[in-house]
Amino acid sequence: MATTLPSATREIRLVTAPEGLPGPEHFAVVSQPLPTPGPGQVLVHNRYFLVFPGLRTLIGGALEGVPLPPVNAGDVLFGPAVGEVVGAGRGSPLQPGDTVTHLLGWREHALVAAGDCTPVGDVLPDPVAHLSSGSAAYGALTRLADVRPGDTVLVTGAAGAVGTLAGPVARLLGAGKVIGSTRSPAKAERLRTELGYDSVVVSGDQSPTLVRQLGTAAPQGIDVLVDTVGGEQLTAALTAARRGARFALVGALSGQLSPHRDGDSAPAEIDTFRVINQGITLRGYSGIDHPEVAEEWAKRFGGWLRSGEISFPHVRIPGIERAPQALQELFEGRHFGTVVVELPAQ
């Protein structure tokens, strides 16, 4: 039986440009007439969309080198989403009932060019897992850091979307010891007990220095860094690097989560003498440079999920009206793992 579509749909718009970190007061849930797909287009009913810190950079507007458009006042937010095709225009290779991923989240229904959608198939046991950030972690560990058996691996921002997968993946790739960093003692405990991190250093005003904690956690030094934070955590990691250490820089949360920046920089003090003397490599990871990783990751991730060798730590926030608050909570570090907004089925 055909699904009866609503006459209107809702979306999240930026209504005023923030000074500093955006909060719920900068967004509005707006109702719009439901669009009709034209030739080569599909109408997707979104079921899940990703809440991610990169929105801070897009809203900040300082996008040099970023392959995405800015989000200006009046614009609808966007980002990775999983949904069901509920309408298809003439010539579309997709049909109603297909489950797809695309980049027009932050709305209940998305009018998308069929060529901009990817059918999800059954490679992953749960469609929401397509919103994981594990591809970045896996790509950094396999393409840049080249994890070797017995390596000691440090993951900064280990309780975030990338970090909660980077540690377990490093272990599956042969790492002998996995260390994480986080701002929260409660999250540190979860990283140890739920995700198998050997030890976790806690950053914060009341904590011992990161350098001292790393010296205790890795007295022989670290071989690999997966850095999602930058700033002082990258600086501290350099003090613990063994000769020939490989640093893969994946994120810049110290800048994106700072109320004093625009989300486009995360300065760090780098001891270049140590980099040279220890033969340390520092490389930035971008999925654009490694287009083959996404498919490879999905296959391995699906196998690991089905075998129980890995989990997908995530939080589902119900209802589009809670999305702006979910973004603020992400900035505040309130959640563990990936954060997604879940919309009801039609």
Topology record:
Elements lengths: L7 E7 L12 E7 L7 E11 L2 H7 L20 E8 L10 E4 L6 E5 L4 E2 L14 H11 L7 E4 L7 H10 L4 E6 L2 H11 L3 E4 L7 H8 L4 E6 L3 H9 L1 E9 L3 H4 L15 H7 L2 E4 L8 H15 L6 E5 L4 H9 L6 E5 L4
Parallel strand pairs: 8-9, 8-11, 9-10, 11-12, 12-13, 14-15
Antiparallel strand pairs: 1-2, 3-4, 3-6, 3-15, 4-5, 5-7
Protein name: Zinc-binding dehydrogenase
GO molecular function, one term: oxidoreductase activity
Organism: Streptomyces broussonetiae
Secondary-structure content class: alpha/beta
Mean pLDDT: 95
Strand % is 25-35%
The rounded distance between the terminal residues' Cα atoms is 13 Å
The CATH homologous superfamily of the domain at 134-289: NAD(P)-binding Rossmann-like Domain
Number of helices: 10
Task: Find the CATH topology of the domain at 134-289.
Answer: Rossmann fold
Quickly name the level 1 CATH class of the domain at 134-289.
Alpha Beta
Using the 3D structure, state the CATH architecture of the domain at 134-289. Answer: 3-Layer(aba) Sandwich
Radius of gyration: 21 Å
Question: What's the overall geometry?
Answer: globular
Topology as H/E string? EEEHEEEEHEHEHEHEHEHHEHEHE
* Low-pLDDT stretches: none
* Biggest sheet record: 7 strands, mixed
Helix content: 25-40%
